[in-house]
Structure formats: structure tokens, C-alpha cells
Write a structure and sequence with these properties.
With 227 residues, the protein is of the alpha+beta class. It is built from five helices and 17 strands. Helices cover 31% and strands 31% of the residues. The relative contact order is 0.18.
């Protein structure tokens, strides 16, 4: 499931995050690349343990925590600490690759299974040319270029790439997460049920049928979740 989640960062939070990243000391993005992806990765990245990365990370995590849509779709168990990259000048693209299945947190050594990947756009679309995130699935290739503050969530098993940036700078946060529900189709079913329940509650209230459907949702989550 590929999902656009709008306004993960409020305008105020976005402004704070961009201010933190202003004049950041970017380094070669291959520091977090696997063996295969290092061959096609050509961007810059903020050092994971730098002060600016930690400050911006706190803003992003707060935005994720306050997004009900993100929680419903991802059902996060562990979130790999958000990272930040910049596509600009000659370091401007990332070819086709698949994200590593397991990531290790530098600070704790804890492993995270990457069920889902996410990109949170921090530059507005008119601030750069190119830079589309292209995600391939069974239905073809999907080109994604979102407003600043918006996030796209997609399976980490997907082949994806970032097209060359030919003008300006594309700055974004990217992250991986391990879901409480490992199977993609089960997560999709739970998300669709949750969205249907929300609509029914808004239009019909908490009728007995809606309460029963809510109970079915939670019983499925109870059955499938590894919390």
C-alpha cells in the first residue's frame, strides 16, 4: 500500500525543522547504503548523531506521533530514527534499489525489521526541478513529489529511486519502521476497516453495528499484532 499522508508537520513545525537544517554540514549519503544501493546512491546526508540531525529528528517524531492516519496505516512497533538527505548539484540522484531488510540503530544496537519506508518532504515542489520519488509495485511505477510537510508511506520491499534534481535542492527526511502487523495485506485490511469505521462513526454515530465492527477490528488486531 502506497499512502500519501498530508501535513505530518504543521507549518510551524516545518518552519522549525527547515531552520534547524539551514546551513547543515551534509556528508556523502553512502554512509548508510547497503552494498548494492551504494553503487547507485549519489546524494548527501546529515550525520546521524549530529546536533542538527537530533534536533530535526525530534520535530519529525513529534509530527508522526500526532498523525492518526500514520498510526492507522503503519501500526508502528519500532521506528528507525529519522534521517535527512539533500539532493543538489552533482549529488542529485539515487538509482533503483530496495531498502535493507534489517537496520541497526547506532545509539542502541537494537535491530529494526523494515516493513515500511517513508519519505517526509521538507522542500516545496517549486523549489526544485526533478527529484521525484518513483516507487514500483505490481501496478506499475508511481511518481511522488509532495508539498513540504507531507509524507509518503510504502512497503520497504518496493523497488524505488529518486530522479535527478536539475535545479535547486530537494531536502527530505526518510525513515523505516517495523510494524506490529508484519503482513502487508493484513495491514491493508485493518487500515481499510479503520477508515470505514471512522466514516461510519462520523455519519451514523456509534450504532450497535458500528460498535460490533469496531470490535471486529480490534479482535483482528489482537490476533495479528506483535506488540
Amino acid at each position: 500500500m502506497l499512502l500519501h499522508i498530508p501535513e505530518v508537520l504543521t507549518p510551524e513545525a516545518l518552519a522549525r525543522c527547515r531552520a534547524v537544517l539551514e546551513n547543515a554540514a551534509w556528508v556523502d549519503g553512502r554512509v548508510t547504503a547497503g552494498t548494492q544501493s551504494a553503487l547507485v546512491k549519489n546524494n548527501r546526508q546529515l550525520p546521524e548523531e549530529s546536533k542538527k540531525a537530533k534536533a530535526a529528528r525530534a520535530i519529525v517524531l513529534e509530527g508522526l506521533e500526532n498523525s492518526p492516519l500514520f498510526f492507522s496505516a503503519a501500526l508502528p512497533k519500532r521506528i528507525f530514527p529519522p534521517l535527512f538527505n539533500c539532493y543538489e548539484g552533482e549529488a542529485n540522484a539515487f538509482g533503483n534499489h530496495v531498502d535493507n531488510a534489517i537496520r541497526t540503530m547506532a545509539a542502541t544496537g537494537q535491530r529494526v525489521r523494515t516493513d515500511l519506508s517513508a519519505t517526509l518532504f521538507l522542500s516545496e515542489p517549486d523549489e526544485y526541478d526533478g527529484g521525484e520519488l518513483v516507487i514500483e509495485d505490481t501496478y506499475g511505477a508511481h511518481s511522488v513529489k509532495l508539498p513540504a510537510g507531507d509524507l509518503v508511506l510504502y512497503p520497504s520491499s518496493s523497488v524505488h529511486r529518486v530522479e535527478p534534481v536539475t535545479r535547486g535542492a530537494r531536502i527530505a527526511s526518510f525513515l523505516w519502521l517495523e510494524s506490529m502487523v508484519r503482513e502487508t495485506e493484513r495491514r491493508r485490511l485493518l487500515f481499510d476497516m479503520d477508515m470505514a469505521i471512522l466514516e461510519l462513526r462520523q455519519t451514523q454515530g456509534d450504532t450497535p453495528a458500528v460498535v460490533n465492527l469496531t470490535g471486529s477490528y480490534h479482535n483482528l488486531l489482537r490476533m495479528w499484532a506483535d506488540a
